[in-house]
């Protein structure tokens, strides 16, 4: 198969995938699709200009070639590049494939707050899911703890007594979950995870369970510290 054919096949794969995923009709131009998808997909946004360049090359091959002569045969590197991008757009890696082997540290709902602080210090994890059995009650972090301790100081109450009596579950703030945390199913892709962090600058972590429900134990947790690994994976994906 020559490079022109391989190039057109990869281009069509990108075009068909984006139209299907984002429900764009057949009348919408490829350029318009790319502009709209750039607001929805990190992969498309990061490769927006490259996709426009591919579109111009595709038009030259398709509209200016004849049965006797293909006007342009893409370079081997260009052909490999669009095939790689077509694979990345149509079958992006799942977040679980990248982080699923990493054990998630959990905290029991009845853990005393003083012990919860020690766990955060010992593990160096700033966001620890709190469970009662298989039920996710929330995610405890440093900010919540500081707020709770500050509230005790403001009321003139004993911080030591509070840390001894309060539990991890009792310290949770449910309003934090929708703002700072996202719960997702195991099917979520790393492209979708990057978009979640891009769209919500306050997001601290994405917690993944099998079906994205709170009555399931976590498969993995992804924080802002993991974004560098995701970017590197997307850049090197073949």
Task: Give me the secondary-structure topology.
Layout lengths: L2 H20 L7 H8 L4 H5 L1 H17 L11 H15 L4 H5 L7 E2 L4 H11 L3 E6 L2 E7 H13 L4 H7 L2 H4 L3 H6 E4 L5 H10 L5 E5 L8 E6 L3 H10 L2
Parallel strand pairs: 1-2, 4-5
Antiparallel strand pairs: 2-3, 5-6
Helix pairs in contact: 1-2, 1-4, 1-5, 2-4
Q: Tally of extended strands? A: 6
Report the top-level CATH class of the largest domain: Alpha Beta
Strand content: 5-15%
Shape annotation: elongated
Low-confidence stretches: none
Number of domains: 2
**Architecture of the largest domain, CATH level 2?**
Roll
At the third CATH level, what is the topology name of the largest domain?
Answer: CBS-domain
The neighbouring-strand order within the major sheet is: 1-2-3
- Helix-and-strand structural type: alpha/beta
Distance between the termini: 20 Å
Largest sheet: 3 strands, mixed
Give the count of helical stretches. 13
Radius of gyration: 24 Å
Q: What is the CATH superfamily classification of the largest domain?
A: CBS-domain
The percentage helix is: 55-70%
**Mean pLDDT across every amino acid position:** 92
Q: Helix-strand pattern, N to C?
A: HHHHHHEHEEHHHHEHEEH
Can you offer a commentary on this structure?
- The chain is of the alpha/beta class and 238 residues long.
- It has 2 domains: 89 residues, no CATH class; 141 residues, CBS-domain.
- The chain is 55% helix and 13% strand.
- The strands form 2 sheets. A 3-stranded mixed beta sheet has the order 1-2-3. A 3-stranded mixed beta sheet has the order 4-5-6.
- Helix 12 links the parallel strand 4 and strand 5.
- The mean pLDDT is 92.
